[in-house]
Queue: 2 jobs
Job 1
Amino acid sequence: MKVLVLGGDGFCGWPTSLHLSDIGHDVTIVDNLSRRAIDLELEVESLTPIRPMGERLRAWHEVSGKDVNFVRLDLAEEYDRLAALIRDVQPDAIVHFGEQRAAPYSMRDEAAKRYTVDNNVRGTHNVLVAISESGLDTALVHLGTMGVYGYGWSGSAPIPEGYLTVKVPTPDGDIEREILHPANAGSVYHLTKTLDQLMFGFYAANDQIRITDLHQGIVWGTQTPQTVRDERLINRFDYDGDYGTVLNRFLMQAAIGHPLTVHGTGGQTRAFIHIRDTVRCIQIALENPPAKGEKPKIFNQVTETHRVRDLAQMISGMTGVEVANLPNPRREAAENELNVAREQFLALGLDPTTLSEGLLEEIRDIAQRYAGRADTTKIVARSTWRRGMETAPDLR
Amino acid sequence: MKVLVLGGDGFCGWPTSLHLSDIGHDVTIVDNLSRRAIDLELEVESLTPIRPMGERLRAWHEVSGKDVNFVRLDLAEEYDRLAALIRDVQPDAIVHFGEQRAAPYSMRDEAAKRYTVDNNVRGTHNVLVAISESGLDTALVHLGTMGVYGYGWSGSAPIPEGYLTVKVPTPDGDIEREILHPANAGSVYHLTKTLDQLMFGFYAANDQIRITDLHQGIVWGTQTPQTVRDERLINRFDYDGDYGTVLNRFLMQAAIGHPLTVHGTGGQTRAFIHIRDTVRCIQIALENPPAKGEKPKIFNQVTETHRVRDLAQMISGMTGVEVANLPNPRREAAENELNVAREQFLALGLDPTTLSEGLLEEIRDIAQRYAGRADTTKIVARSTWRRGMETAPDLR
């Protein structure tokens, strides 16, 4: 299968590109290297020493004998080059990770809010228009987020995989309607993924594009069976206040003896998935596209759920590092339950990596090994959801 | 009240600006003149001889003694100037008409699709971010569209004003939830208004912006009590295949003896409102904003509904001009019922202009008077929803 991986230089995109290449697909990475540029802006680096794309691809060729192509291209700004690329490559599928993906960064300031909307909405729409213009039957697999659903909206019902059947009152009695789960975005970043969903619904119906949207939980872990094959293939690990995600940040904090930073009560329950399962899910989604003319297929790409304070306690218990309760810079419920439907990937063969299997390995092989690269002034979250919300000082 | 009217040079924006000035508000029009630029692109002109903005404003000053300000500015491209303008003017309210507003134009080709999304989403988001950045309590009134709801989705229930209470099944029995009416966009243009709604919900909650969204039907008529005061104040009248709307196009066709062009069966039922009522609705919306922290207030801005073929028969009966049934270039249901809740504006004092009052006046004062300016090669709709859909030849 010929596959374009948009955003193939990023945390999920890079290991997915290698996985798809490893199982025999002809992969072309498309990326504008924006994630590396944001590192420069934020004056922070991946904890792991990621290599430039050219070196990554040479290393992959050395260890696998396989070639992955790379095109540097901005999805939002360079439509004509994108359309030409699709015409030239004639991809069977496009995997779309090419969006600004951090909630705190998206709330950082006016420029970041505007960049997130402008980049994500225009980029995704350009991909849809370019597929339509090509006349090809290219399938699209897009990385969404569990954050489109909000937390607690469904009461005791599990969050369904994208669609919800509701009863609508009418003068002739209730009628059943299947709707896209109502959008409850918690940040400008999450908002863009709710906008993407509406664009997907329209282009699936009008242009008959075959689209799969993957509502992913918080990804943890770093390496996959491909990225461990050579240190030059190592995946990125973000721990800073804007791009770091909660579980990996705890692991890194544990490794350097920094207090585990819990924002608010820690009563937030969130969904998680290991990066090894992410790349498998993408493969499964590629192998099971919807039919032409069908509505977008939506999967919840999560394997377990945990309360943030429980994770902190677990890691504190394993490592002896204390927990620090900090002010919450986000507007969100202090406490929530979370019950997520996730039958589809399990039915299609996903065998999840659990926290209990992977946590110690991650602390040992990544967080401790690269601890010397950490900048402790970058750990505490400083982007606030509203002007004037309290943040904590550096803890070390 | 200090009011910015974004898109104040357009078909709804211009008469609204004059109405608000006439009742004593301090009005600043903000417009990039994009609608006039698209006329150049499409090689078509308003049937009525609209004047340049400078002449319009001089004429308004002559007849009313009032000054309306004008700032030429692109909402999507010139964020910094927009933010500075809001800081300088400190508006009590912003009325936002500044979006590409034609469904057929939005489906014309890849460039028009991309322009519609890029312009409308970025422009609206920039307005929200600029209000937030200003720290002011500026209220926002936005022109939406009835097209966000789709046609026929609600069964026998009237389309509610924005929000719908549904029953969601849970293990503990059904729970009631109020949701934004599910989006059912029929074109890329309508899609952008469904994206706007989600942005409004987020910024109303997170930034406590007071937002009103007006889901308007198809506007007919041309003049208001202000625009008739001098021919230099005349409002635009679009009749071409991309920007013309169905009822005004029938009136113009009747005036020049061109067959009344019904696309498909004419069984489409649509909602209508006279331009005189549009400007009154905007005034009512400005006078009744939601409170800070409330969800966006949504009104259905329509006064009556009609089936397209019934309108054609009515006008054919009045004028003797024949009806021509042409292929439908849109993807839409051939026939639909339409029942729209519209209690809010009526309760707040709107006294609608009905078709029976205004039709003959419109044919006499506008369509017949300016018939000599019509270009009959521009009448038939040529933008198709999918490549290869059939369109009709010119009929004259």
Note: Chain A touches chain B through 53 residues (CB under 8 Å).
Job 2
Amino acid sequence: MKETMINTIKDIDAHNVIFIEGLPGIGLIGKLAAEHLIQELGAEKFAEIFSPHFPHQALIKEDASVRLMKNKLYHGRSNDKDFIILVGDTQPSPSNSFGHYEIVTKIIEYIEKFGVSMMFTLGGYSTGGEIVEHPRVLGAVSHPELVEEYKDAKISFRDDSGAAIVGASGLLLAMGRQKGMKGMCLLGESPGYMYIDAKAAKSVLEVLSKILKLEIDMTALEERAEETENLIHKIQEMQRKSMSQNMPEMSKDLGYIR
Amino acid sequence: MKETMINTIKDIDAHNVIFIEGLPGIGLIGKLAAEHLIQELGAEKFAEIFSPHFPHQALIKEDASVRLMKNKLYHGRSNDKDFIILVGDTQPSPSNSFGHYEIVTKIIEYIEKFGVSMMFTLGGYSTGGEIVEHPRVLGAVSHPELVEEYKDAKISFRDDSGAAIVGASGLLLAMGRQKGMKGMCLLGESPGYMYIDAKAAKSVLEVLSKILKLEIDMTALEERAEETENLIHKIQEMQRKSMSQNMPEMSKDLGYIR
Amino acid sequence: MKETMINTIKDIDAHNVIFIEGLPGIGLIGKLAAEHLIQELGAEKFAEIFSPHFPHQALIKEDASVRLMKNKLYHGRSNDKDFIILVGDTQPSPSNSFGHYEIVTKIIEYIEKFGVSMMFTLGGYSTGGEIVEHPRVLGAVSHPELVEEYKDAKISFRDDSGAAIVGASGLLLAMGRQKGMKGMCLLGESPGYMYIDAKAAKSVLEVLSKILKLEIDMTALEERAEETENLIHKIQEMQRKSMSQNMPEMSKDLGYIR
Amino acid sequence: MKETMINTIKDIDAHNVIFIEGLPGIGLIGKLAAEHLIQELGAEKFAEIFSPHFPHQALIKEDASVRLMKNKLYHGRSNDKDFIILVGDTQPSPSNSFGHYEIVTKIIEYIEKFGVSMMFTLGGYSTGGEIVEHPRVLGAVSHPELVEEYKDAKISFRDDSGAAIVGASGLLLAMGRQKGMKGMCLLGESPGYMYIDAKAAKSVLEVLSKILKLEIDMTALEERAEETENLIHKIQEMQRKSMSQNMPEMSKDLGYIR
């Protein structure tokens, strides 16, 4: 394997799809939101993505069997619309820009065949440690006119001129735009510690489901979000006790495989 | 040399082989076990593997001549079965995922020609410093049904869901599986200091020889294991004397070339 | 995208061009000078450069839309001469020599078609923290005879034998020379903190405009230069107050995207 | 430039050459020795080597003109024998094994055309800080029988089994051997600080000139060696004054471009 491979498992009949990306990143926000959406839509896996730019390791599954690190494409339908959803174990290492570009190029070429009516890339936006009571959802778009189109969806289009969206969420949007694909990136505000931030994921999914007119049962995500909130309260408690200097160590352990 | 090369030294007559990997890793456990097996089987080297992803250096041999870093394939026979055993000086650097994938891809393609009835990849599993009296052998398989097949072999199939097997032991198993090869990874528990852990290597080889119904004289390995145990006792002594903070320095020196 | 791409947006009619490079580097000196020149010449963008060696991220624009990191080529005319000016968001990471060489090779091949009468690469020269009242402009040339040709232009051709010009400013000059292109690198002296050094940029542009006999309104750059000077005075103040140890932290934040 | 290029400047008439390598490494020992040999033989440059794996920078020459980082091949004749000598500014970065292999492969292919009767690679061997009064010259060979052949040349063929020769000196010898080329690596003992160690270079060149029956005027090298010795005395003085903790900083500055 000398380059990224996308293996089709099952041919799908999909046209003019809504493409949604939720790969691991800050707080696993995009991944949580996209995986919940897959469950709610009953979407089915139809392709797997392997890459020599993913970590060189095998993951152990619950049944003691192993598999390669991978990304996956799911297909679901709702309201007469086709959805293709991208999730997975990992992205290339932050020092490997070449790998990020290679993978995103392959994915864009692959989904282009179906026609892409709209792309949503999901992720997190670090507040740099500050804890937020009600995580906002920050938006960035492929084409400026989309700001107007989605202005009622409780998205914060701040002037973040010069800021960057790192990794697949940014590259898919910007490279898709070069192929004429419309898209929007939705980023849930998060303290940015490396725990799983289900609360921010819920915020992102609420905005997305409203836009897509999807009825999504948030119960499971709410339960995880509650756990998140409890965790945050504990962290705040610890910070009050001036123990914040030990935190980076702790959070690193929780975030190794994202 | 722009990619990994496997040079056949000698044509072998081998079919439906049992493939065993023991490249350098934690405590050199896999390497020790595989090299001991080569000796016991009287296996012969038939191919050499060179790669631009190996360290850019020459190794000095006892006779003052040098050679490139390499991996090697050995062929042996026992109980009417063909064995191909992979050992070597090194694996690519941990920051070079691309190199790991490239080499493993080449090896899989090469051994596939012989037919592979079963693959065993051997290595170590770090307890994170904790010293273990009787190192267990942890198992992971290519196909879940193999857990049942090997349940009598004193292998611990713990639920390590989400854990990762890094390097050749993991990649060979997971990439072999994609080619339909059955396989199992056997990992000897080890404190994970970077000394040579012959005790854990013995545990791994005991499990493997039982599975393969091989009579293996463990004397040499037992001697090395005793040395290991003495070393561990020394380390424990030092830890009791609260000198543990000096250990990482020490162990690093011992582990430079693996 | 597996290699650097230069997309022509608009065909231009240009011959025997003067090529000017101002990509991000020390103090953003080259970038500031080249962007000011683009504005003054009313030069127009005619090509965009994308590369898998650029950071794997999308930049957010003022209108909340995103775009890939890129370099850009502008075309302008003055005194019957064609100018091609290279500016952009970024250069490859310092650890990726291969990427630097690949991009510069593509750019040289691209501009060679127009014929290049002279190349000017603009950048900064770090004094290693020392603040300079009147930043000198240091020069290095493709061909030694150019020193004589430009001796009246207030350029300091010090004996810097053995010193290196890192990145595009150095590679373009040296690789261009191999294709027979004449060129000169102009480096404005700068303390080398990672703030924007408009004062040094003004010095560089003054030298360049004198050489090219261009009338350039420096007002905007002077205003920025004044801000720079105020910033430098603040830094000096802080240094006097022995707070210099906090500065690297500060300056890093200001320099993330260059 | 996407791979290493060797540009022939001048066709040479050379057969069955003695190939000598002296690229930058520990103490610049190999480089000093090889450059002195070039001068003594009156050897002429006939080829230049450029590589995208070299640092991405231009070097400033004394006349203020710049050039790319490069390696060079020289041709000289003495005692009816053809010499090809490899020297240069740099080797790839230590983290870029792929680059090291690529360059050495190209060089081997290039010199193979002339026929190589013997290869000598020159370098240093760090004692890890210990200062040596009379630097020994350690040897390693391509073929064990060469130890016997060169036993009278005051070379120390210690049992360094398992030690490694890093970079071009090691790779050229080991990869040359795979093409059937005979060779020897000569490493001058050096404290391994990153200053220029002319004393060790002289030791290496004395061994080499004796082997090759070359009359070499060591005066210039002796002068530099004296400077080295003075520097070493200063360092010893400083060490006596317990200032050794400041040394790594110092030596780093001297060794940036090797």
Note: The longest strand of chain B covers residues 116-126.
